[in-house]
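Memo to structure team: turn this sequence into structure tokens by end of day. - J.P.
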Amino acid sequence: QVQLQESGPGLVKPSQMLSLTCTVSGGSITASDYGWGWIRQPPGKGLEWMGAIVYDGRTYYSPSLKSRTSISRDTSKNQFALQLSSVTPEDTAVYYCVRGYGGYIDYWGQGTQVTVSS
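Reply from structure team:
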């Protein structure tokens, strides 16, 4: 059973960087054909795909967030991370890390609330 767990600060000040880590258990982030991504849901809005890092280290980003987003990984810890720069209150959301396979998401983390506020 694959499990994903998000961690990171729940409060970030405007203009600062949001950093989250996803720790994966029950499966390797380097296993072939799997992708590991981030999705967020602002209050009262729908889900927004932010980007992903696939098993071989390639990254993909949402065009609308690409200039502010970076996804990286630490294979020794079986973790991947999200960095979102220059945050504003509009970046307030529940952030989820997920696993994808064949275009589908098959596992989700429980989600973590991040609030951008001074």
